[in-house]
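Board work, copied verbatim: Guanidinium exporter
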Amino acid sequence: MAWISLVIAGVLEVVWAYAMKQSDGFTRLWPTAIMAVSMAGSVGFLALAMRTLPLGTAYTIWTGIGAVGAFLVGIAVLGEQASASRILAAGLIGSGLVLMKLSSPG
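↓ predict structure ↓
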């Protein structure tokens, strides 16, 4: 259950990052509201995961899901650059997440 909570927390981190971008500096109400709610949910699910998982594992995977997820949303939805070096960097983050999962209890 902790890993499911952690994945949900990571996905919500991507949602709030995207909503923050769409809020245009907090000048648009609905993206700002979505950002605030998803941010609170993300931290809440992270806290649930941390009941069982070690801090280093939970926090690293949470931020990694957010980083890679935001990168993918940026490319797929916002038309951001998908250069080879950026893709390699995201792949290295992803491989680090897999290694962290494989080396962690729970």
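The longest helix spans residues 55-76.
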